[in-house]
Task: structure prediction
Amino acid sequence: MYEKTLSLIIELEAFLLEGRLSSSTLLRLLQRLLWLPLKFLKMGVKEKTNGIFLWAYIAFAAAFIGVGLIESIGLAKTEAANIMNLTLMLAPALLVLFSLPSFYAHSGVTPDAVNFVVDFLGKNGFQSEKEVELLKKSIKPIEERSRNRVTALKWIVGLIWASFIYTFSKVLEPSQSTMAGIASSLWTLAIMALTLIAAYLLVWGYEAALDKLFKAVEFGCNDFCYSLEVAKRNPA
Result:
């Protein structure tokens, strides 16, 4: 069961990343060490930023409509126009934050990924729900180990955030009176801010990629068990 479990994870990773594993043992190892991890992160970051881009598109459309509306009713350059513009920017954020579960709860898992797991189980001789449950139990320690790594990485992001806050507080101190000192502090602050943003995207992107991977396994196993039940009810 262990070998089948590991094989499923490896093959599903390659499938999700649209990559083909080399038949050469050495090249296969290099793929999994050097190339596929980058694609795995890219997949997760893309999944994590989908909501941000959706908000940006809706906000842009709302702002465009708002400008025309403000001009048409003669509110340009007034306080009411500013309030309306702010509302049009914030409203899309609320729509994204409180969107329907069907938009995000699947963690980016596609029917193709689910079918891949179903096909894998069929080709590898799984014939009962009990066997599938054993597979799930074998996968659980792998998932827990992966989640523990994410937790550790989040602590690192927290330390970067704490360092950023500390540096920011130092910039506000009266001792930073010279232009050179202020410029140096602001430069350091900018670098730390970029580091914090990059760390956030990478860690939470990695977590999103893990969600997609293990949810695909879960959905695929459930679909396979369902197909077994259907076969029992409707024997050929």
Helices lie at 2-16, 25-72, 79-97, 101-104, 111-123, 129-171, 179-233.
